[in-house]
Amino acid sequence: MQNYAIGTPGKPWGTKEKELWLAAQVVQRSYHDEVVQQLMGIVPTGFKVVQYGSLPYDEERYPLYAIVPECFDSAKPSALVTGGVHGYETSGVQGALKFIRNNLLNYAKDINLVVVPCVSPWGYETINRWNPLAIDPNRSFYTDSPASESSQLMAFIASLEQTFTLHIDLHETTDTDNSEFRPALAARDGTTHDNWNIPDGFYTVANTTNPQLDFQKAVIDAVKVVTHIAPADSDGKIIGAQVVSEGVICYDKKSLYLCGGMTDAMYVTTTEVYPDSKQATPENCNDAQVAAVCASLNFIK
Q1: Which residues cross the membrane (predicted)?
Q2: pLDDT tens by residue, the chain, 301 residues
């Protein structure tokens, strides 16, 4: 792997290197136009948009929004859908918005649904995995987290006082994971990260301690109607993790401080769409995310 443009190989970044990295980031799309305006125009009957916070880098530019029921029904199970924890993973955000627009009402009578379509709006605008502090929000879901994206979402979910049965977190695996984000991570931490094979297709990440493989299979079976499922590599792995069933690997979500470990939900999955596939289009990727969300909700109805 080539050395990253910032920093000295083998030496973790200090303040200077992080400032150089931040100075190199540029806004490439509009959170307001592509997310906020879209969200405000698609709120279904029986739901409301709540602002649960804003990012300290620019509070006016980066308000944080969720869609919640106007009234929670204690007789129903509750489910959480999160997108855009990694802002550069576009279909996580746009797939969540498409689900709200076209499918949310189909589940309202059976499930208390909370949807947070874009957890990391600065990352969405700059097409970044990290936040401006060079911190990965998806490794930062813990008490006193330095990532505002993570800490504000955790506080909001806790304030709802709901026991969640399901949490589905919408992500992508992209070619830039190897060309940009893993090299940057290695440079920031002063370590060496080998390239891994980017899987061509959709897969899910279950929770090591409670994988619920029947649930994962239901998601995979629904998505394979929309797009292709990632095969295992020659070692029987996907992104370095053992494949435990078709298109499914496991991570210990709590110990890694992932968004998917934020709740104690019985059914948890992280989707991974591959937008750089020759077989994929942006709409196809969004549809795969929607199919995964719907299959998850159908499983707990």
Answers
A1: none
A2: 467 999 999 999 999 999 999 999 999 999 999 999 999 999 999 999 999 999 999 999 999 999 999 999 999 999 999 999 999 999 999 999 999 999 999 999 999 999 999 999 999 999 999 999 999 999 999 999 999 999 999 999 999 999 999 999 999 999 999 999 999 999 999 998 777 789 999 999 999 999 999 999 999 999 999 999 999 999 999 999 999 999 999 999 999 999 999 999 999 999 999 999 999 999 999 999 999 999 999 999 9
Burial 80-111 (b: 16+ CB within 10 A, else e): bbbbbbbbbbbbbbbbbbbbbbebbeebbeeb
Burial of 59 (0-12, 13-18, 19+ CB in 10 A): exposed
Four-CA torsion 142, 148, 151, 156, nearest 10 degrees: -160
The β-bridge relationship of strands 78-83 and 241-242 is: unpaired
Question: Per residue, what are the HEC states of 163-200?
Answer: CEEEEEEEEECCCHHHHHHHHHHHHHHCCCCCCCCCCC
Q: Are 226 and 283 in contact (CB under 8 A)?
A: no
* CA-closest candidate to residue 297, choices 107, 149, 93: 107
| Whole-number Å distance between alpha carbons of 265 and 292 | 17
- In the structure encoding, which two tokens stand for residue 239, read together? 């992104």
Residue 239 backbone class (left: φ over 0; alpha: ψ -120 to 50; beta: rest): left
CATH 3.10.150.10 fits 15-300, yes or no: no
8 Å CB contact between 259 and 119: yes
Burial grade of 35 (CB within 10 A; 0-12, 13-18, 19 or more): buried
Q: Where are the domains of the chain?
A: 15-300
